[in-house]
Design brief:
By secondary structure, the protein is mostly helical. It has a domain of 165 residues. The chain has eight helices and no strands. α1 runs antiparallel to α2. It is elongated, with a radius of gyration of 25 Å.
């Protein structure tokens, strides 16, 4: 019998950043294009204009979302590295103050007396343990890998592209029937949004039907807002056809 490796018993856990990036990109893509489609459909434009507008939005929005994901994740990494340097400096310059901060956290957890002193000594004897303890439980900061900004940009950008295409695909097959294309787009988008909510519930503590309905309401609500704008533009004096 082979000896199991230490990693064999580790349970795989979903990464919160991956889940949030996927939901951010896909939901934004669906809501954005659905709003454009319904707004233009309400304004009674033809299928070609809908395709051009939605594809232009796809290109611009996917790049913008990827750039935002990259810069925001990079900012979190820079903040984490900056705080690590500051904590290391304080551990060298004012070790007693840092020690007291560890004690405060442990006391808030309910440790007291000899138990608190023993745990405090164990943590403070190990500089790495003390540093990571302060980063996690005093500053509430999680480490950000060097590759995380690129990975986040790629995931958000890709999810945004896919999200844009979902409500748009029906218009490649319906010819000039804008109403049919918009109807199919709403149905497909609603099903997809419900699926995203279901996926979120599977990897979190959410309720599948509640998460699904919430996602549908948010997404179709954004599309309906686009429809209202298109409708009022058509009805406005001097703007409608």
């Amino acid at each position: 019998m082979s000896t199991p490796k230490p990693s064999d018993g580790l349970e795989a856990h979903p990464k919160p950043g991956v889940l949030s990036d996927f939901i951010l990109g896909s939901q934004d893509g669906i809501v954005n294009v659905l709003g454009i489609i319904l707004g233009l459909a309400a304004a009674r434009v033809d299928t070609r204009i809908i395709l051009v507008a939605a594809l232009a939005a796809l290109g611009a929005e996917s790049i913008a979302m990827a750039a935002v994901a990259y810069s925001s994740t990079l900012s979190r990494r820079r903040l984490y590295l900056s705080e690590i340097r500051r904590e290391r400096h304080e551990m060298e310059v004012v070790p007693e103050m840092e020690r007291q901060e560890v004690r405060t956290v442990l006391a808030e957890w309910g440790y007291k007396g000899e138990e608190l002193d023993d745990l405090l000594e164990r943590i403070c004897r190990n500089p790495r343990a003390m540093l990571e303890f302060m980063m996690s439980f005093e500053l509430k900061l999680a480490p950000v890998d060097e590759s995380a900004p690129r990975a986040s940009a790629l995931l958000v950008g890709t999810a945004t592209v896919i999200g844009h295409l979902i409500p748009l695909v029906p218009f490649f097959f319906v010819g000039t029937d804008v109403l049919l294309g918009a109807t199919i787009s709403i149905i497909v988008s609603g099903i997809t949004l419900f699926g995203i909510g279901l996926y979120e519930a599977r990897v979190t503590a959410g309720i599948w039907w509640s998460n699904g309905i919430q996602m549908v309401i948010i997404g179709l609500g954004g599309g309906f807002a686009g429809y209202l704008i298109g409708h009022f533009v058509v009805m406005a004096p001097g703007l409608g056809s």
